[in-house]
TrEMBL record:
GO MF annotations in UniProt: endonuclease activity
Domain of life: Bacteria
Homing endonuclease LAGLIDADG domain span: 18-104
Origin species: Candidatus Kaiserbacteria bacterium RIFCSPLOWO2_01_FULL_54_13
Classification via Pfam families: LAGLIDADG_1
Descriptive protein name: Homing endonuclease LAGLIDADG domain-containing protein
Signal peptide (from-to): none
């Protein structure tokens, strides 16, 4: 049995700070590894300051930081902090009260429906698959 890391609990100052970063520099979305897979929940923050992303990873206890590929010497090196699926849902639950942009509506939808539409074994009935597709369409239609 796989044991997932749990998101650390954050105090109000940390949660509101993280929500501000997500509102300004982050993304709450549904993505997939390839076109044949179902979408999964992802929270990302992209920034040029590695120390900021390391701080986020430290206080949350989950997620990973990756370096973006730089294709021009004119571009600064960028990094992305990413947390996905149930860990993303846990983190969204913590920062939700402090979100202010359209990401709040996306977060509310994810908190309400994501777990009900995501079986742990990854096996979807035709009905559940249809409902999950409708959820993804509604979720992704929420834009700024």
């Amino acid at each position: 049995m796989v044991v997932y890391k749990k998101t650390k609990s954050l105090n109000e100052a940390q949660a509101s700070y993280l929500a501000g970063i997500v509102d300004g520099e982050g993304t709450i979305t549904l993505t997939r590894r390839n076109i044949y897979k179902n979408r999964y929940l992802v929270l990302t923050v992209s920034n040029n300051e590695l120390s900021l992303l390391e701080y986020i990873a430290k206080i949350t206890g989950v997620g990973k930081i990756t370096r973006k590929n730089v294709h021009s010497v004119k571009h600064a090196i960028g990094y992305t902090y990413q947390v996905s699926s149930r860990q993303a849902l846990d983190l969204i639950r913590i920062i939700f009260p402090f979100l202010r942009t359209y990401k709040r509506r996306r977060a509310a939808l994810a908190l309400k429906h994501y777990l009900k539409l995501t079986p742990r074994n990854g096996k979807y009935s035709p009905t559940l698959l249809k409902r999950r597709g409708e959820f993804a369409d509604k979720f992704l239609s929420i834009v700024p």
